[in-house]
Write a structure and sequence with these properties.
Layout lengths: L1 H5 L5 H32 L6 H14 L2 H29 L3 H14 L1 H10 L12 H4 L2 E3 L6 H12 L6 H15 L8 H11 L3 H14 L4 H11 L3 H15 L3 H17 L3 H14 L8 H12 L2 H11 L8 H13 L7 H7 L3 H16 L3 H5 L11 E3 L3 H17 L3 H8 L3 H4 L17 H8 L16 H22 L1 H29 L2 H9 L1
Antiparallel strand pairs: 1-2
Helix pairs in contact: 4-26, 8-12, 9-10, 10-11, 11-12, 12-13, 13-14, 14-15, 15-16, 16-17, 17-18, 18-20, 26-27
Length: about 550
């Protein structure tokens, strides 16, 4: 049975061998074909009058003035410069080369690139075992548990700076969340619910606010309308809190509304300085609705406890949620690293550590930092203030730049409060990259870093923010090529304009040297082959 299966020509081993043989032979076939073409061109040079054509071209080129060559090289430099500018702009905006992308899209199918990828998918599970891919799950967009209020915070930023902190893609995701969360059962919609369903989809904030007031006119107990007004019309946290309390009175037994409103009320209390009250509200909410862990209310609780400097309570929350079976986040990983760093950072000295080595507690802190950096490598630059912070988006991508912005925006103050913690982070965070030299292929403590984060982060973060990319991409070949071509053509144009006679001599010497091997090869062929054979081939 084994022999029959091993000799099956349809087996993956036979297919791979056949493909590798074809790829190997194709290179030599192309080289042989090219050599045959050159030979035939040389043999038929007399019937094709190649010598006369070359002589005529030489006479024509000799009659051209240096101004023509200056114009030619200058135009080439200009065109390649324009291509360089476009390539650089496209790379900065989309993270890839336009020429490379078009080449891969249109030339790869002709060269059999698609077939390779599809065949890998067909034969990836010969014995029925399928390999688990985590990239799809890793690139899922999550609701930011600490998202700000649009009217009281995001809009004020727009009034001051004139910049929009939220992208349309981010706001559209929020609209979909609100429709699903507040109006889940579309078969039992009341008239005011239909109005609110349209309100969440409106792009204009004023139109959304008008629709909310229209829903309240239809039903004074429309809780979703008060939620929208608290989020978007209220210009202060105090006003937003008042509207959320009004919404809570009208929410009734709608679990989704109650959870959302109580969470936002706890966040209002946190922002207004009533931190102990906020902690109590969050704990009560987690006890009342223990199955809603996917809302990540514990991340709100961790931030509030850190503000109280209740580190024992923070450790207790981490003990419950920093579990191998539960999904991780930057808040979980970096808070764990902060607690361990805080225990040793006040006395940490890189010089002393290099002399005596790291103690057990320092080693644990360094390992915790390496773990956090592996999960999200973008965070340290914000914590160390190597990159400027912006307002966090309403949605984040775990392990992406959007999550790093959201975490650092709320937790930078907690790292600064722990004496020496940022110094320890500064001395050790880059060591993570020596542990995982190929992060897209293999991870150390987590799955390989997903390659889709840059694209998603560019959709979530505003255009004026420079998205952090990991691993750092090298400049594409075509940008370097066009830059070199532009510089070379510009140099030729300048030299030809300044020294026309000298450049003419140089060009003639260059081409004579370039075609010397071809002349030598032709002379050898004529001496090797009988003259009668050349005569017969020429007559053919």
């Amino acid at each position: 049975m084994a022999d029959s299966s091993g000799s099956n020509p349809q087996s993956p081993g036979f297919t791979e061998k056949l493909k590798s043989w074809l790829c190997w032979s194709w290179t030599y076939i192309c080289a042989l074909w090219f050599a045959m073409v050159l030979t035939m061109v040389y043999v038929l040079r007399s019937p094709l009058k190649l010598q006369e054509t070359v002589n005529a071209a030489s006479v024509f080129l000799n009659t051209l003035t240096p101004k023509f060559y200056v114009a030619l090289t200058g135009t080439s430099s200009l065109i390649s410069g324009l291509i360089l500018i476009f390539e650089w702009w496209y790379f900065r905006k989309y993270g890839t080369s336009f020429i490379e992308q078009v080449s891969v899209s249109h030339l790869r199918p002709l060269l059999g690139g698609v077939e390779n990828s599809s065949s890998a998918g067909l034969f990836s599970s010969v014995n029925g075992d399928t390999e688990q891919r985590s990239n799809v799950a890793e690139c899922k967009v999550w609701r930011n548990p600490l998202n700000l209020f649009r009217g009281a915070e995001y809009s004020r930023y727009t009034w001051v700076t004139g910049k929009e902190p939220l992208t349309y893609y981010d706001m559209n995701l929020s609209a979909q969340d609100h429709q699903t969360f507040f109006l889940g059962d579309t078969q039992q919609l009341r008239p005011e619910d239909s109005v609110m369903q349209k309100a969440w989809r409106e792009r204009n904030p004023q139109a959304r606010i008008r629709a909310a007031y229209q829903a309240i006119e239809m039903n004074r107990e429309c809780a979703a309308a008060y939620v929208l007004l608290a989020e978007e019309e209220a210009t202060t946290i105090t006003e937003a809190e008042r509207l959320f309390k009004q919404a809570l009175k009208s929410a009734g037994k709608d679990t989704n509304l109650v959870v959302y409103i109580k969470r936002r009320l706890a966040m209002c209390a946190r922002k207004l300085g009533r931190i102990k009250e906020a902690v109590k509200m969050m704990r009560d909410l987690m006890k009342e609705f223990p199955l809603l862990g996917m809302l990540n209310i514990h991340e709100n609780l961790l931030e509030a406890l850190l503000e109280l400097q209740a580190y024992a309570d923070v450790q207790a929350v981490l003990a419950k949620y920093d579990d191998i079976s539960l999904p991780k986040s930057a808040t979980i990983c970096y808070t764990s690293a902060l607690l361990k760093a805080r225990a040793v950072s006040d006395k940490f000295s890189p010089e002393a550590a290099s002399r005596r080595g790291l103690s057990t507690a320092e080693m644990n802190a360094v390992e915790a930092i390496h773990r956090a950096v592996e999960f999200n490598p973008h965070v340290p630059k914000y914590l160390l203030e190597m990159k400027s912070l912006i307002l966090p988006p309403e949605h984040i991508l775990k392990r992406g730049d959007s999550e790093a912005v959201a975490y650092a925006f709320f937790h930078l103050q907690h790292w600064k409060r722990a004496e020496g913690a940022l110094n320890l982070l500064h001395c050790t965070w880059e060591g993570t990259f020596r542990i995982i030299p190929y992060p897209l292929e293999k991870g150390h403590l987590f799955y390989p870093y997903p390659g889709c984060t840059e694209t998603a982060d560019r959709e979530l973060l505003p255009s004026f923010h420079e998205v952090s990319v990991y691993p750092k991409k090298e400049l594409p070949f075509f940008i370097l090529f066009t830059a070199g071509l532009c510089s070379f053509c510009a140099m030729l144009a300048m030299l030809t304009h300044q020294f026309p006679e000298l450049m003419g001599v140089f060009v003639k010497a260059f081409f004579s040297t370039l075609f010397a091997p071809l002349g030598f090869f032709a002379d050898k062929m004529e001496s090797f082959m009988p003259s009668c054979l050349w005569h017969q081939l020429a007559n053919v």
